[in-house]
Write a structure and sequence with these properties.
Helices cover about 35% and strands about 40% of the residues. The chain has a seven-stranded antiparallel beta sheet, covered by helices on one side. A hairpin with a 2-residue loop joins β6 (about 105-120) and β7. By secondary structure, the protein is α+β, with helices and mostly antiparallel strands. The chain contains four helices and seven strands.
Length: about 170
Amino acid sequence: MAETTIVDEFECTEETYWEKCHFDPEYNRRLYLEHLKFPGWKLLETKTEGDKTSRKVMLDPPVGALPGPVKKLMGDSFGYTEIGTYDRKTGRYKFTIIPSTMADKTKVEGEIWCEKLGEKKIKRHARIKVDVSVFMVGKLVEEKVMGDLKTSYETAAPFTNGFVKAL
């Protein structure tokens, strides 16, 4: 199993991050399709009940170069569905990723939360765990997924800061 925590600072309030970034369809469309160049992004569902907001999103990230054994398992395309819930009482978004291939052998889950640093500054934490149970190549797939996640978060952070500054 691979695990990482990615931390980024944004010049906004926690409320702005959740409402104008994380759950805003236009922000996400621009981030994934225009900035990160994902071939696909689609909001499937969002609903709020009491203190909880849930969403379901389908994403098709760029696959890039894959090690031979991984490419043989995954093929030329890879997509996933993210299903998550934000709890306003705890300030945490917990999610599960269901991949389009090897879903029965792959477990990806995570949690995102914000830490207030000042009047209009936060630190966003994203903890992600990836476990791929495939003999001989599971570790390779985990490393590829983690590398892609880290790259996406690193690339997205300046976009998000620019986006919130323009609000």
